Fold this sequence. Notes:
Layout: E1 35-37, E2 43-45, H1 59-76, H2 80-92, E3 98-99, E4 103-105, E5 108-114, E6 122-128, E7 134-143, H3 144-147, E8 155-161, E9 167-173, E10 180-186, E11 197-206, E12 212-218, E13 225-232, E14 241-245, E15 252-257, E16 263-269, E17 274-280, E18 288-289, E19 299-304, E20 307-312, E21 326-331, E22 341-344, E23 351-357, E24 361-368, E25 371-378, E26 388-389, E27 398-401, E28 411-417, E29 424-429, E30 435-440, E31 451-459, E32 465-473, E33 484-487, H4 505-508, E34 513-517, H5 527-531, H6 539-554, E35 563-568, H7 570-581, E36 588-592, H8 598-602, H9 614-617, H10 623-630, E37 645-651, H11 660-672, E38 679-684, H12 695-712
Parallel strand pairs: 33-34, 33-35, 35-36, 36-37, 37-38
Antiparallel strand pairs: 1-2, 3-5, 4-5, 5-6, 6-7, 8-9, 9-10, 10-11, 11-12, 12-13, 13-14, 15-16, 16-17, 17-18, 19-20, 20-21, 21-22, 23-24, 24-25, 25-26, 27-28, 28-29, 29-30, 31-32, 32-34
Helix pairs in contact: 2-12, 6-7
Amino acid sequence: MPLRITVLGLLMTLPLSGLAADLPPPPDAAKKPHEIKAPHGAVRNDEYYWLRDDDRKKPEMLAYLNAENAYADQVMAPLKPLENRVYDEIVGRVKQDDDSVPYRERGYWYFSRFKAGQDYPVYLRAKAAADGSQGQDEEVLLDVNALAKDKNYYSVGDFDVSRDNRLLAYAEDDNGRRQYTIRFKNLETGELYPDRVTGVSPNVVWADDNKTLFYVENDPDTLLTVRVKKHVLGTSASADELVYEEKDDSFYMGLDRTRDDAFICIVVESTVSSEMRCAPAADPKTFTVFAPRQRDVEYDADHLDGRWVIRTNAPGADGKPAANFKLMTAPTDAASRDAWQEWVPHRDDVFIDGFELFDGFTAIAERSDGLERIRLLKADAGADAKEEFVKADEPAYSMALSTNAEPDTTWLRYSYTSLTTPSTTYELNVATGERRMLKQMPVIGYDASNYVTERLWVDARDGAKIPVSLVYRKGFEKNGKAALLQYAYGSYGSSTDPNFSLTTVSLLDRGMVYAIAHIRGGQEMGRKWYEDGKLFRKKNTFTDFVDVTDALVARGYAAKDRVAAYGGSAGGLLMGAIANMAPEKYSVILSQVPFVDVVTTMLDPSIPLTTNEYDEWGNPEKKTYYDYMLSYSPYDNLSKQAYPAMFVGTGLWDSQVQYWEPAKYVARLRDVNVSKAPVVFRTNMDAGHGGKSGRFRRYRESAEMFAFMLDRLGLADAPVAK
């Protein structure tokens, strides 16, 4: 049966929010019966399975995506002036000539620079002066603008400078598929060596000999990180020696150096387990297992001053797991679990997220009551010493350890931001308490005093207390009339913290409220918050989001018919779920690179990420998981009902959520949707999971999506506060 593409009519001249009869007809994809069978005998029909093409070359498939893009162009044409205004506002806030905060490492200060009109950074360094300060002579490491010239997509994923400071290894991706190529540059001469290592992840580490580079090779089909190899500069990549191969396809793999640069470590992690192998960086021939992997035991370790410090959830002497993690120590030569000694005990009310070792103190990144904080442990503090924390200035904020490249300092660098405060880098002298601001992200024309941030708690239907971060422009009245954009993610234990956003200001200035729902599935409230939003409790993620919407409307933050929802990737799964469960509560849904075909994807181990995520979603080859996943999978639960207006985006080269998931979802949605509200499906034909590369191109994508939303919420012509 051939693909049916409706011929599109003339451009609309009436507002998109006008009569449905004024909208052009959308594309109509062909239906082709295709059975998907599970090992336990269950069978489903997927009439749009044909849209899948691993090579991304099938003419019929490309014709459909191009038709949807043409339809999106026509539907959005009347809103182009609004899109341009929003884009100009966003870009107008950007200080186009801007440097990052320099950090010092091995005698050089490293930083990046954006130049006016350029999409990509220039990475630089300057030699430290005799007093340790930054010297005047700058050296270009990489000019990404030059590397990206004539490319539709380009990204430098990682780079590492050799121990003698002479050589640079960097990983580049030129299609968004996240299959990187390693290149090598002589920093003294500028020469680009002919060595090329392809099909790798963006993770490179030099050995101390300044000629051997360790890297992680991907499986070409699943993109799983499967092998650690080492490349000797000047030799063929085909001769690269295998260092380690991971046989369990539920594990991710990466490389790192310890804090003191003494060890190179191979780190493998699954959803519920981890393992490290380390070798002396001076002679990395034999990688020794730090502690053998064990299901439901996770750990990560770092080394400084003759000891290991280990963050772990391993059970204690009482047999109870440390769900929120604890810190332990071990001597350099006795790292087995039997030698671990408890240092910072587990607490039910505090989640230990990470740590940074210094010569005279340790900084611990923690979460408490849904907010981040940094705890300071001084080397000379006694057992009865009062706990010390880095102070925050607002009720809802985000605070994290920044780049602290060298341990021999009394200064701790950390980042601070909130929904009203642009990203700020501070230095705190742990010995004296002095704090100094190194840099705040410049935002042209922005005055933080014009905005207000709040922290609320909402009761979920099962009694859980959900934290919510809000921001709006000063003068806002909680009278139940405003428009609201509610955002959430809620998966993988990934916490969504209240960070400042350049793009959101354009919404606030039009009178909107912006809310982040810190729903279960994230880790804002500790490990249990994550556990209560995965596997057989995944639906808590979706109902939490809906319950937050109901509460914000009930408390007067928004009109019930002026609520928009936004999520991406696994947050796009959330969007698809709430669209099926509670479509009447949302006027518009924004869904980027959405994971919406849960069962089919998780039944296919050839798709990237599938096998790594059985402990996140479940393995549908087992019927109990199959049935539960099928009960919420957005694609499988589309039904004949009125859906809200939707803007769905994807990238043809997406390696995380394959483009065919949202493509199939939209095709089936068009079959069952009885609403007159428009559905726009935009495929970026030159990008992957993260959208277009370059800082300004991404703002263009945001502006188009926001124009669609603003129009549906009745704010297309709203005055913009100054």
